[in-house]
Amino acid sequence: MGKKLIEFRNVSFRYGDEQPWVLKNCSFDIYEKEWLAIIGHNGSGKSTIAKLMNGLLFPQEGEIIIDGQQVNEESIWSIRKDVGMVFQNPDNQFVGTTVQDDVAFGMENRGIPREEMITRISETLSAVGMQDYLLTEPHRLSGGQKQRVAIASVLAISPQVLILDEATAMLDPKGRTEIMQTVNNVQEKNELSLITITHDLQEVVQADRVIVMNDGEIWDEAIPRDIFSKKDDLREIGLDVPFVAILADELKANGISITKEPLN
Ligand code: ADP
């Protein structure tokens, strides 16, 4: 394992004093350059975790440390430079009138010089396979293409961690496949940690590690193969093991592995 990039230490959170706790004493680490998938049924607390990592929310109990800094009101502006997020709805994420304007926007806010911006626009759009759409207006793109541009816009600001919060949830199967392939490419080629948040077990097959949430608690934390081996228990907490995972298990029994080996 590499260096720890994000640490959750006994984090509990609720949306108000009279509200129930939606995260209960959660502790976990995220390492540099790993792909961590966070999975759980709807309402299990996944998006709340994402918002805590980006300082959109702060925990009432426990602490969150990102790249050595505790997340609080003072540190959040510098931490947000390290944490890029892509959300569920592709239509809510566009700010530019063309694809290239959109990718440029976050860089303009950070005062990146023009020459550098041009290089990064080209590099990041190529990384997500959207290099031929520089001047296209966003409304002409498919859902999958919009999400790929959203990923490029985040990559352009060179974050240390990219979080995709249900980024495929509103896409058709083709769009989902596009995004999962893009995510895989990006993680292999870039020096960043990747956190994918999903309720679809199919999307965790290629992750290095999986955290399973259930009712605000960490239910399990393991490599995908070990998670999938608990099919019946997963069904009890509302998670359906996909055919691909069952197939992976069968192949493994015959000496063929299609999921990643544990990181050393
Ligand atoms: P997930 O992403 O796993 O679907 P969330 O983190 O969105 O789960 O939600 C966890 C719990 O917190 C749910 O019970 C949800 O209803 C509640 N919740 C989420 N957002 C709010 C909010 N803004 N105010 C009050 N409760 C909320």
From TrEMBL:
Keywords linked to the UniProt accession: ATP-binding, Cell membrane, Membrane, Nucleotide-binding, Translocase, Transport
Keyword Transport: yes
Cell location: Cell membrane
GO cellular component, one term: ATP-binding cassette (ABC) transporter complex
Main location class: membrane
Membrane disposition: Peripheral membrane protein
Xref: Pfam families: ABC_tran (PF00005)
Stretches assigned to the ABC transporter domain: 6-240
Molecular-function GO terms, alphabetical: ATP binding; ATP hydrolysis activity; ATPase-coupled transmembrane transporter activity; cobalt ion transmembrane transporter activity
Translocase in keyword set: yes
Family of this protein: Belongs to the ABC transporter superfamily.
Stated name of the protein: Energy-coupling factor transporter ATPase
Organism taxonomic ancestry: Bacteria, Bacillati, Bacillota, Bacilli, Bacillales
